[in-house]
Specification:
Elements (H helix, E strand, L loop, with lengths): L1 E4 L5 H13 L3 E6 L4 E6 L8 H4 L4 E5 L19 E3 L2 E3 L5 E5 L6 H13 L4 E3 L17 H14 L3 E4 L6 H7 L2 E4 L7 H8 L5 E4 L6 H13 L5 E5 L17 H8 L4 E3 L1 H5 L5 H10 L4 E5 L17 H18 L4
Parallel strand pairs: 7-8, 7-14, 8-9, 9-10, 10-11, 11-12, 12-13
Antiparallel strand pairs: 1-3, 1-4, 2-3, 5-6
Helix pairs in contact: 3-4, 6-7, 10-11
The structure holds phosphoenolpyruvate (PEP) and manganese (II) ion.
């Protein structure tokens, strides 16, 4: 439930509302707006009796919020969230391209690919130092030494870096090195990790779980925001369906659906959705055409020898083509934002 204060409501009146909410056994979160303050009631599993709240001075009305997420909802925050990282605005109307290898494999490999990413005009560099792999016998990432390589890449190219925190043990370290902390699909419902990410000061890139509904994705984002980190970028990366012609099925309808109900930016990862480089450019065009705020794509200078996800990694010249197409299409998609 939302308690909407009158535009001339005073601070003491907002405080009285917060006290009443607490007395009812809930938590109140004031959301100051340009015109008026709204107080969001969180933690209410049951119906809130708003009769006493409505009788308080300075209260204009209450609005029942039927959706279970509140802080990430457009109902509480109608303006779109724009997240600026290293001078790059994510959600600002121009699709942001985040590109790089699946994993940091070595300093030479990472720097070589970062130079290609920079040369082609992508704005953010991606690469995992901690890799959540389906098999414990495959390459698990370089860990902290991989993060140090990423810091070097940023120094050399000036590109901000997005890299994944896979658990509670490494999130603090990842936060030190990363510009954006990625939470992977497999961790979308790791609630303690989400809460921990909510304490971070860096933006979080939250990927949709393999079998997660849009509501579940938004509830996961709500965990992060409710702990105090408002900077969450959502990412559609394909979901599991009966269709087996691609690694996962890219759900492009998630983009307009999420934009309808949430103010958070949403980007698309066509690489993990398709699993094959042949489809990435077409899917990227589709993503931008439906209004995605950006793309997260894998690219490798030598995909045949990549330690992970080589098959879905673009060749450098394909990244160049993708960048050209995105530029042309983003003007058309502008009306949907
Ligand atoms: C990745 O981006 O490298 C990754 C592991 O993605 P996902 O969590 O979507 O599988
Ligand atoms: Mn990958």
């Amino acid at each position: 439930m939302l308690v909407i204060m009158k535009s001339n409501a005073r601070k003491v009146q907002v405080e009285a509302v917060l006290a009443e909410i607490e007395r009812l056994g809930f938590r109140g979160l004031p959301i100051p707006g340009a015109q008026r303050t709204a107080v969001c009631i969180v933690g209410n599993q049951r119906q809130v009796d708003d009769s006493r709240i409505l009788s308080l001075d300075g209260v204009k009305e209450t609005i029942r919020v039927t959706r279970p997420y509140k802080l990430v909802s457009r109902e509480t925050h109608s303006q779109r969230t724009v997240i600026t990282v290293g001078g790059v605005a994510i959600g600002g109307g121009r699709p942001v391209i985040m590109a790089g290898p699946c994993a940091v494999e070595s300093e030479e490999q990472t720097l070589a690919i970062a130079r290609i990413v920079k040369q082609h005009g992508a704005q953010v560099f991606r690469a995992g130092a901690f890799k959540p792999r389906s098999s414990p016998y495959t390459f698990q990432g370089l860990g902290e030494s991989g993060l140090k390589i990423l810091a070097k890449v940023r120094r050399e190219t000036g590109l901000p870096v997005v890299t994944e925190a896979t658990d509670h043990h490494n999130i603090e370290m990842v936060e030190e090195y990363a510009d954006i902390i990625q939470i992977g699909a497999r961790n979308m419902q790791n609630y303690s990790l989400l809460r921990r990410a909510g304490l971070c000061r860096k933006p979080v890139l939250l990927k949709r779980g393999l079998a997660a509904t849009i509501e579940e994705l938004l509830m996961a984002a709500e965990y992060i925001v409710s702990e105090g980190n408002p900077n969450v970028i959502l990412c559609e990366r394909g979901i599991r369906t009966f269709s087996d012609n691609t690694r996962n099925t890219l759900d492009l309808s998630a983009i307009p659906s999420i934009k309808e109900v949430s103010h958070l930016p949403i980007i698309v990862d066509p690489s993990h959705a398709a699993g094959r480089r042949e489809y990435i450019i077409a899917l990227s065009r589709g993503a931008v055409a439906v209004g995605a705020d950006g793309l997260l794509v894998e690219v490798h200078h030598d995909p045949a020898h990549a330690l992970s996800d080589g098959r879905q990694s673009l060749y450098p010249e394909q990244l160049a083509e993708l960048m050209k197409d995105v530029k042309a299409l983003s003007a058309l998609a502008g009306g949907q934002r």
